[in-house]
What we know:
Number of domains: 1
Shape: globular
Oligomer: single chain
Amino acid sequence: MKHRKEPPGDKNIIGTRVVAIRKAKRMKQKEFLARLQTFGLDISSTSLSRLEGQYRLVQDYEVVAIAKALDVSILELLGEETVE
């Protein structure tokens, strides 16, 4: 697994949560991208990597699709609720 060389960016607040939740569910990026497509969000692996690294802005409709694909609430994704 490749680790980031630079510290996280400041373009979004959900990137690190997406990584943590995805890994807790033992979901690889490729599988996550496929799940996102089923919820109407078609982004590239590079775009997902930038989102997770907090180097990319996230649109409101993307937050909804990401929460659905991870099977968590939007509040959990935003860090307002605890992930079980």
